[in-house]
Amino acid sequence: MSLVALLKDSAKIKFQTWAPQKWNLRLGLVPGPSCIRLEILMLLVIFVPSMYCHLGSIYYSFYEIIIPKRLTVQGGDIPVEGLSYLLLMQGQKHLVHLKVKRNHFVNNFPVYSYHNGLLGQESPFISHDCHYEGYIEGVSGSFVSVNICAGLRGILIKEEKSYSSEPMDSSRRFEHVLYTMAHQARVSCGVTSRDSHVVSTSWQQGSRKPHDLQALSYLWSHKKYVEMFVVVNNQRFQMWGSNVNETVQTVVDVIALANSFTKRNKHRVVLAGMEIWTNFNHWRQEMLFHRAKHDVAHMIVGHHPGQNMGQAFLSGACSSGFVAAVESFHHEDALLFAALMAHELGHNLGIQHDHSACFCKDKHFCLMHENITKESGFSNCSSDYYYQFLREHKGACLFNKPWPRGRKRRDSACGNGVVEDTEQCDCGSACHLDPCCDATCTLKENVECSHGLCCLGCTFRRKGFLCRPTQDDCDLPEYCDGSSAECPADSYKQDGTLYDRIHYCSGGQCKNPDNQCVNIYGYPARSAPEDCYISINTRGDRFGNCGRPTEDQQTYVICSGDNVFCGKLICTGVQSLPRVKAQHTVIQVPHDNDWCWSMDAHNITDIPDDGDVRVGTSCAPNKVCMDHSCVHHSILLYDCRTEESCHGKGVCNNLRHCHCEFGFAPPDCKNPGNGGSVDSGPPGMQVTNNNESGIEGSAQAPPAPQAPPPEAPPKEPAPKEEAGKRQEKLKEKNEG
């Protein structure tokens, strides 16, 4: 039952206090157990008990009937890009200014539902010109987000109070209900010993700086798009009156609100499709994955789960099996739910909970704090976590623009800041300051471009300019082609490429246990000697194992043979403890004149934490770690024969094309040239990039960054001792 319907039954009452629980918005709407732990999803390993959340009761203390008055200018209506309304709120007149907010759903996105066991599909038409966002004139910190296509439905925030506007269907006078929330509701999430996936403690502190400013510029200058598929369970569907249209429209409204929270990190949430169903996780892997292209999949459930309000797989976006999240929407506070959705999406994008050193402008709590409020945004720490996620090539799917994707867009809207079908550029509302683009979204005279990594001063950067440098030894550079403003798609060495004689590339990253230890404990930490791995990983407990307990095996897996190097990461040479979140534990075991260190986050999901040796790490001659086992490196599916394909003068990239050394030309590195590949763009002459601000430079890839530099390095680094000896033995055996 909606609030408006409730008011129709109590029209004589002007002031009331009630909670949504009294509107029959509870478990009793559908048959089944009254357990409030989202048990179906727990069985599917999506709602694991690693994050406990609680939502305080939401009470509405006051409501009033208002008639919004749309203002017009002399000669007609205000243009559709901007609107203004006059509202009489609690006896005071307020002027609300709004601007259209587009592109938060894909045109004709599919909506699936089941009727008598048969799958049906609809493609609802929803206007891109319904959602507006703005502020209340003269009220600092105010915020307004409304849908104007069916009255004025949405939320307003004024002086830290939240209001919700909803049109009265039976009114002939454009009457609306404006109700006030009695107190600031919030979702409170407490990270316990069964915490979500552990990240590098260096990033937890928010102090890690990227090694290359050009790489940082690339990752942040490109807008990211998160294509989200939303599943609505049957109970929440019934709470929306079993009405498909209302369900779809409400989800679209929530997505629009969620985008208000994601602005800081420069990614846009785009609704890619919906389904109304009653099951989720394995179904997602087996059916949804092939049904609709998406980067993440979120399920909305309708019951009050008690402690658990939301859960997401950390860093799961763009992966094939861990892109899911679940949120409970048992109340009617759309803005608070949008904040929860943005919070769980943050976890999908690798963002951990905030700690005491994190901050966001003018807010007590940030979006990724354990206490989620409706007036929060991403913190500085969230930006660091997100950058790390992108830097590790985990967010590759976010850089593709989801439209038109085989569908013609209904129209393009000049002035929204997004370059669309028929536009050459789009300078938004600041065209008078843009030297390249005019107000008609057309490039100015004698202008080649307006934006992009290969655009500088309204002209294309020269052919061969290094637009994306390498991140490490397993990455490859990209260059401008001189005729486009865009840098070529990111490429890297093929999985299984050998480097430093014993290590392998995987996912564009160098899988070196020494570097992994440095990332966690800082310089000069390094991978421990063999004795430490044997001593700890044969214990079969939290801190030393080759696999967690499962339904079939109730105990930790004891490592045996070479598998000891594929269990927990064991480090030595640790000079100072990193800042570790509550309930995250490290242990140390004495070894000769040093200590062996291991860590565990008590994470019971299927995603390995940073305390585990990473997949693809060398564990024995010609072997790598995979699922806590030491197996032959052929599992990485490396099939490049550089001597034949690249004439011994290059390496294969992730697309199995030759990336040639300087002096040889693609595609086969046989003829003279400047190097590169058919995917990287053409390198220029071998000179040096002078700076990032625009001096034309080279095409030569800079040397790959080494292990992160120490904050205060000793003059002479500690020797590697037994760990170094073990690596030398591996090199000798590999070469033999």
Describe the structure.
GO terms for molecular function: metal ion binding; metalloendopeptidase activity. InterPro entries: ADAM_Cys-rich, Disintegrin_dom, Disintegrin_dom_sf, EGF, MetalloPept_cat_dom_sf, Peptidase_M12B, Peptidase_M12B_N, Reprolysin_adamalysin. This is Disintegrin and metalloproteinase domain-containing protein 1a-like. Its main location: membrane. There is one protein chain. With 736 residues, the chain is of the alpha+beta class. Among the domains are: 61-112 and 122-190 and 199-399, Collagenase (Catalytic Domain) (3-Layer(aba) Sandwich); 491-618 and 708-736, no CATH class. Helix content is 17%, strand content 23%. It has 13 helices and 39 strands. A nine-stranded antiparallel beta sheet has the order 2-14-13-12-11-10-7-6-3. A seven-stranded mixed beta sheet has the order 9-8-17-16-18-20-19. Strands 1-15-21 form a three-stranded antiparallel beta sheet. Helix 6 crosses helix 8. The longest helix is centred in the middle third of the chain and has 18 residues, at 244-261. Residues 1-59, 74-79, 189-215, 278-286, 404-411, 604-608 and 687-721 have low confidence and may be disordered.
In a nutshell, what does this entry contain?
The chain has 736 residues and is α+β, with helices and mostly antiparallel strands. It contains 13 helices and 39 strands. Strands 2-14-13-12-11-10-7-6-3 form a nine-stranded antiparallel β-sheet.
